[in-house]
Amino acid sequence: MEQLVDSFIKRLQLFSPEETILVAVSGGPDSMALLHYLCSIREEWSWNVTAISVDHGLRGQESADDLAYVERICREWDVPFVGATVDVKGYKQMGGLGTQEAARKLRYQVLENEMSRLAADVLVTAHHGDDQIETMMMQMTTSARPEAVQGIPANRPFGTGRLVRPFLILSKKEIEGYVKLHDIDPRIDPSNKDTAYKRNAYRKNVVPYLKEQNPRLHRHMQAMSERVREDQAYIRKQAESVLEEVDFGTEFTKSARFSIETFKTFPLALQRSAFHLILNYLYVDKTEDISYLHEEMFFNLLNESKPNAELHFPQGLSIVRAYDEVTLSFAKKADHTSFQYEISVGETIEFEDGHLSAEWTEFAQEEGTYDFVCDAHHVQFPLLVRTRKNGDRMRLRGMKGSKKVKDIFIDQKIPAKMRDTWPIVTDSRGEILWLIGLKKGGFCASSESGVWLRLHYENKAVT
C-alpha cells in the first residue's frame, strides 16, 4: 500500500518537504490509516504534522468518545492534537440544510480556521478510491453535462494552502489491510451504514456490484478523474479567447454582453465552457442551481429565429436577446411608462438619454440623422413628443402610403425593450413627423417658404 501512495504523491506532486500538515481524523479506519502513514514518513519529509478531529454532536457520548480516542492515539504517536465540537442540529435548522450538508459545512469551517491559525500549508483528508467511485457515479446520475463528472480532486486550493487526498489511489479493502497489518483499532461510525443518506446507498447498493465487474475500478475512476480535469482545464484556458469578445459590466453592476454572430464563430466546446465561465463571473462561482437544462435553454436562445427573446435564470439573472446582441444581468426590469409632452419653438425637452430642441431656421438643409427640417406650412402646431401607440403609422419621405411604426422598429432591429420608450414627434393632428434617429416623414418639401422648423436631438452618450 505504501508504495502505491508514495508513487501517487510523487506523480501528482502532492507534497513538498518541510510543510506544515494538518490531518483531518475522525477515528475511523480510513483517517487512522492516513494519520499512521503520514507519521511514518514525516521525518523523511521534515513535516510538522498536527491532527484535528471534529465532533458533530450527532451521536451523543459515542461521538464524544471518538474525539477522546483520537486524542489518546495522538499522544501515543507523538502528534499534536486539536479537537472541536460543533452543533450540526442547530446549524441545520437555522440554515434549512440536510444533516450531511450541515455537518460538512461546519466541519470545513473548523478545518479552514485551524489551517489559518497554524499557518498550515496542507490539509489532508482520507478520501479513497471507493469514495471516488461513489462520487463519480452520483455525478453521472445527477448531471447530463460530461464536464461535471470530474470526481474528487486529489489536490485543490483550500484555506491558507491546499487540500490533498493521497489515498484516492487506494481501495477501501487496501486500507483495511493496512489497518490490520499495523494493529490499529479504529472506531466505527454506525451512521455510515444508514442508506437514508444518498452516498451510503451508493456505497451499499452500487459500488459492490461495480467492483465485482472490475476489482480495479477505483483506479480506473481515478485515472478518468485526472484526465477529465486536465482536459477541462485546457478547454477553459482556450475559452478565455471567447471571453475577450465579451463586454463585462462593473463590479457593482455585474453583466455580460456579446455578439451572437461572433460567439458562434468559436467551436461549440469553447462556447459551452465560455457560457459557464460567464455564469461563474456573474454568480461568483455559486452556480449549484444551474443545470444542463439551463445550458440547453441558453443555446436554444442563440439559435432560434426570434430576434427578441428573454430567459430567467436562478437568483434573478436575466438573459436578453435583442437581434445579434445577448445581455446577461441581474438588473431589474425598468418600468416603461408612456409619456407625451408639448414642445414649442425655442424650447428644449430633456430625456434620460438626451434632449430635443426646436427652433426656426432660414436653412432647409438637414445636417444628419439627428436633424429634422420641415417648412412651417406643412406642420400644425403645437408639436407633441410621445411614446408609441397601438396602430401607429407614418408616411415616410420618398415613399407612397404609410408604414406601421412597429414594422419600422423591426426593420431597424431595435431591441424590444427600447421600443416602448422611443420618442416620436407628431404635429397636433397626430401626423408622425419624425421617429427620432430612425425615419423622417411628412410633406416637408416646399422651396417657397423662407421659414423652416428645425428639430435637433442630441444624444448624451455621444457627447
Automatic annotation (TrEMBL):
Record key words, sorted: ATP-binding, Cytoplasm, Ligase, Nucleotide-binding, tRNA processing
The protein's name in its UniProt record: tRNA(Ile)-lysidine synthase
InterPro entries xrefs: Lysidine-tRNA-synth_C (IPR012796), Rossmann-like_a/b/a_fold (IPR014729), TilS/TtcA_N (IPR011063), tRNA_Ile_lys_synt (IPR012094), tRNA_Ile_lys_synt_N (IPR012795), tRNA_Ile_lys_synt_subst-bd (IPR015262)
Gene Ontology cellular-component annotations: cytoplasm
GO terms of biological process kind: tRNA modification
GO MF entries: ATP binding; tRNA(Ile)-lysidine synthase activity
Superkingdom in the source lineage: Bacteria
Protein family per UniProt: Belongs to the tRNA(Ile)-lysidine synthase family.
Gene: tilS
EC numbers on record: 6.3.4.19
Localization per record: Cytoplasm
Keyword presence, Chaperone: no
UniProt-annotated binding residues for ATP: S26, G27, G28, P29, D30, S31
Top enzyme category: ligase
Keyword check for Oxidoreductase: no
Catalytic activity as recorded in UniProt: cytidine(34) in tRNA(Ile2) + L-lysine + ATP = lysidine(34) in tRNA(Ile2) + AMP + diphosphate + H(+)
Job of this protein: Ligates lysine onto the cytidine present at position 34 of the AUA codon-specific tRNA(Ile) that contains the anticodon CAU, in an ATP-dependent manner. Cytidine is converted to lysidine, thus changing the amino acid specificity of the tRNA from methionine to isoleucine.
Record-annotated Lysidine-tRNA(Ile) synthetase C-terminal domain positions: 383-455
Gene3D superfamilies recorded: 3.30.465.60, HUPs
Domains as described in the record: The N-terminal region contains the highly conserved SGGXDS motif, predicted to be a P-loop motif involved in ATP binding.
Predominant localisation class: cytoplasm
Pfam families documented for this protein: ATP_bind_3 (PF01171), TilS (PF09179), TilS_C (PF11734)
